Every structure is written in structure tokens, then in C-alpha cells.
Amino acid sequence: MAAAGPVRPVVLEGAGVTLSGLLGEPSGAPRALVVAVHGGGMTAGYFDTRVRPGLSLLRLGADLGYAVLAVDRPGYGRSAGALPAGMGVAEQAAALRAAVAGYARTHPVGAGVLLLGHSFGAKPALAWAAGAEDGDRLLGVDVSGCGLRYAAPGGAAVPFTGPGGRRLSWGPLRLYPPGTFRACAGLLAPMPAREAAELAGWPASLARLAPRVRVPVRFTFAEHELLWRHQDADLAELAAAFGAAGRVLVDRQPGAGHNISLGWAARAYHLRALAFAEECLLPAAAQRP
């Protein structure tokens, strides 16, 4: 396969909101479009780490024949000035859906769209999937760093910024290549207030959204995930909530912390996520039990 082109910045219009992002494209027509949605306190560059070759999702996906579009969520990147308080999950889902629809009108997307959401970014991805229509051409949803219940005592939400949030978001420093934290300084951004206000209500929101998701879903929990409960019983309950999805996978990623796409394990996780995309491309008859 010929080498993919370089990652480049893009501007998208989403329901009256101008969003920025990064795009990695294959050398030929894409097999599908992967829409990568970053977590709280990060930006789209989370999916394009340059600290070590091979760790970027955008570059790996493009090399394997996928277009990969990492979008700065509303309140981040280009839209931060216009939306200093950000948006709630439902509004973010609508803006992302409109932005991707606009992108698809002028770019090939192959067989359809796989949503890949990390941490808070998984929330609008799942909200979009819960309200998806046939025209969205959704293939599936891949989630990392997001579950059903927070790990803090009493299930309280932990802020993603500040000393406590930083420790929980990263985990042991040995999980990341030297130079990661200096290189990632430009990726960090304050979590907008409206987004932060919805942290505590996520378990109830997911309980409402999960039964409406009708595409395959895959969850990945890092070995050193500290923000979410992920014992076997927790994962069984999470999977059971997606009764209409048809197929729900729950994986664990060894040697990784919450910010899985920035660590040594990033390539392994990204390969697994793209393997899930490949499975979503299989004909429906081949996916039946």
C-alpha cells in the first residue's frame, strides 16, 4: 500500500458552529471514515502524537486505508472563543453530526463512519449513535476511557483538570514515552463549564442512551484506568445496557493509563480499534452468531 499523505488541519461547519480538526487521508479512496472525538481538557491533537513514530491514530489509520478525522469538540480549538462555556453532550452530538455530514458532502467516506470517542468525547459519540438515522451511515462506536460509573467513592465525578484529575487521567508515568508531557503541553485546554456541569449526570444519561444504540459498540479500559469502575461485574452491567446494539465488546488494554492514545500502548490500542472497524465492515450475514 502506498504511503498516506501528511496529517493536515481542517475547518468544519457543524450546526452553526465552526469547528477545527485534523485529517489523515489514505493514498487512495478510503475504506471508511473514522471520526475521533477527544476527551475533556484535550484537543484533536491527542490522536496525532509525534513523540514516537507509529503512535498516531491519524497516521496509522491512513496507512491502513482509512480517512481519520479528529475533531475539536465545541468549546475547544477554533470554537473556544465563540463558545467559552462549551456545550452540553446533546448539543455536541448534534454539532459533530452536522460537521461530519458536511465533510461527507465533499469528501469520500467509503463504507460509512466509525465513531471513536475517548473519555468525555465518548459521551457525544454515544449520544449521536443513540439518535442515529440511516443517512448517518454509522458502522459502530469504539470507546476508550469511559464507563458507566466513576471510580471515586460514592461514584462522584472527578474533575479532569487540577492535581487530582491529572494524576487519575495519566496514571503511572512509566506508561508514556519520555518527552510526552512536554510534547503534549500544546494539546491541553480548560474544560468548558457546561461540559464540566454534566460530568456528575453521566451514569443516568448513559442508562437512557445505551438501549437506543443500534450499531456495534466496543469499550476499552486501560489496565491502569483510575477514573472508572471496571471490575468484571461493572463491565457485564455496562455491556448488558446495550441490548439493541447486536454486538458489544469489552476489552482491556495492558500497559496503558487513561490517556491511552498518548502512551506506549497507543499503537496496540489503535490497531485493535481499527480491527474493530474491519469487523464492522463485514457483511451483515458474516457477523451473525
Short description:
It contains 10 helices and 8 strands. It has 289 residues and is α/β, with parallel strands linked by helices. Helix 2 crosses helix 3.
Features:
single chain; 10 helices; 31% helix; alpha/beta; 19% strand; 289 residues
Strand content: 15-25%
- Overall average pLDDT: 92
Shape: globular
The number of domains: 1
Distance between the termini: 32 Å
Evaluate the radius of gyration. 17 Å
The strand line-up of the biggest sheet is: 1-2-4-3-5-6-7-8
* CATH architecture classification: 3-Layer(aba) Sandwich
Considering DSSP H and I runs of 4 or more, what fraction of the residues is helical?
25-40%
Low-confidence spans = none
Structural class: alpha/beta
Would you mind describing this structure in some detail?
There is one protein chain. The protein has 289 residues and is α/β, with parallel strands linked by helices. It has one domain (8-287): Rossmann fold, CATH 3.40.50. Helix content is 31%, strand content 19%. It has ten helices and eight strands. It has helices spanning 57-63, 89-106, 122-130, 162-170, 180-183, 193-197, 202-209, 232-241, 266-281, 284-287; strands spanning 8-14, 17-24, 33-37, 67-71, 113-118, 138-144, 217-224, 248-257. It has an eight-stranded mixed sheet with strand order 1-2-4-3-5-6-7-8, sandwiched between helices. Helix 2 (89-106) packs across helix 3. The two termini are 32 Å apart. The model has no long low-confidence stretch (mean pLDDT 92).
